[in-house]
Specification:
This protein is an alpha+beta fold and 373 residues long. It contains 13 helices and 14 strands. Helix 2 packs antiparallel against helix 13, helix 3 crosses helix 12 and helix 8 packs across helix 9. The longest helix is centred in the middle third of the chain and has 15 residues. It starts with 14 loop residues before the first helix and ends with a helix. About 4% of the residues have low confidence.
Length: 373
């Protein structure tokens, strides 16, 4: 699931590294919590230097403080893992990014102007497919992001149910004509992985990424509702919009337990900051993909009216106004807003999480860490 697309802020190049500290990052973390988030954690690594920060409360009932190793739902950061698997399969000649969706899943994407024979796998990975995002459906939002969540939090969704919902809407544009973020794309990607390998996308991520990198705190829960410990609680105002503003004195709901099948490959994963940093460092250092595939992953599509932001294959690219270029992904799901960003060589990486999903300005931490402001 997606958090709002970030905006950059001013600063000076490499200011954080030159300062030799993380005071600006901690101040940014404190400010986001002061603005409403119950609590937050951040982990920055550069070379052999590691720094962890925390603020606020992990559990409003007990007063427990956030811990650096706390696990949380990472939302759309899941997409980078899915894209890595797709690119590995392409390198192994088990599929081609130029294959159409219909080649692998005939008849799945059809109706209301949708045509899977005209959409290529590359276009579902970089969000140029034009397929409607099911998470924009008004009834879906009422059930999952509004107070309807309290009734539907344990419902199970299948990938085919999700795609069928998306197919009740017309495409946003013809494939390849524009860019629009769609969670449906990555649910389709997971189905392609299943067809190409005979295994679930979760199995492939576990075997290809989690096990080799020893990411012991990362999991794909499927329909399991609990977050493994150590972990805090997750909170939402259930406004009907994920990551939207919440009224200052409105009710806060504990949304920690939920069946994440409604997110699937678009955002179901659980991890912690340490594992996320390790994953992105491994990715950018070439441990997960060979050079041609990594280059393909980092080939981005420009986005209208957003000159500092572009999107590759499961990767966001941002040029901060201090001139620093960072790569990674953000993620939002009920009660949890996360982001990981790194320099292109993976040497300097930052992961963060807030255990609330309203009025969260997580980009402040990225600007502070990489620009010092």
């Amino acid at each position: 699931m997606s958090a709002a697309l970030p905006a950059s802020a001013a600063g000076t190049p490499d200011a954080s590294a030159a300062r030799g500290g993380h005071a600006a990052t901690q101040a940014a973390l404190d400010s986001v919590v002061q603005d409403g988030a119950p609590g937050g954690i951040v982990l920055a690594e550069q070379g052999h230097d590691t720094w962890a920060g925390h603020a606020g409360t992990a559990d409003l009932a007990t007063g427990r403080k956030p811990r650096a190793d706390d696990r949380f739902r990472v939302g759309s950061i899941t997409k980078t893992f899915v894209a890595v698997v797709m690119l590995q399969l392409a390198e192994e000649k088990k599929l081609s990014l130029d294959d159409t969706v219909d080649h692998w899943l005939p008849g799945l994407v059809q109706g209301n102007g949708n045509d899977g024979s005209k959409i290529r796998l590359r276009q579902i990975l970089n969000h140029t497919s034009g397929i409607y995002s099911y998470t924009d459906d008004e009834d879906f939002k009422r059930k999952e992001f509004g107070t309807g969540f309290l009734k539907h939090r344990y419902d199970t969704w299948t990938p085919r149910q999700i795609v069928r919902l998306a197919m009740t809407h017309r495409p946003v544009f013809a494939a390849g004509d524009d860019w629009s973020y769609s969670d449906t794309n990555y649910v389709i990607a997971s189905m392609v992985i299943q067809k190409a390998t005979g295994h679930s996308y979760a199995h492939e991520i576990e075997q290809r990424i989690l096990s080799p990198l020893h990411l012991a705190s990362t999991s794909l829960p499927g329909t399991r509702a609990r977050v493994p410990g150590p972990s805090g609680r997750a909170y939402s105002k259930l406004t009907g919009e994920l990551a939207g503003p919440g009224e200052p004195n409105s009710a806060i709901y504990d949304v920690t337990e939920l069946n994440p099948s409604f997110a699937g490959a678009a955002g179901e994963m659980i991890s912690n900051n340490h594992d996320l940093n390790r994953f992105y460092r491994a990715l950018f250092s070439g441990r997960l993909l060979k050079e041609p595939q990594l280059r393909e992953m980092m080939t981005t599509v420009s986005i209208k009216n957003m000159p500092t932001f572009s999107y590759g294959l499961g990767l966001m690219r941002m040029t901060l106004s201090c001139g620093t270029e960072v790569w990674g992904h953000n993620g939002g799901i009920q009660g949890s807003i996360s982001q990981t960003m790194a320099t292109p060589d993976g040497d300097h990486v930052l992961s963060l999480n807030f255990n609330g999903d309203w009025n969260i300005h997580e980009q402040r931490l990225v600007d502070a860490e990489f620009c010092g402001a």
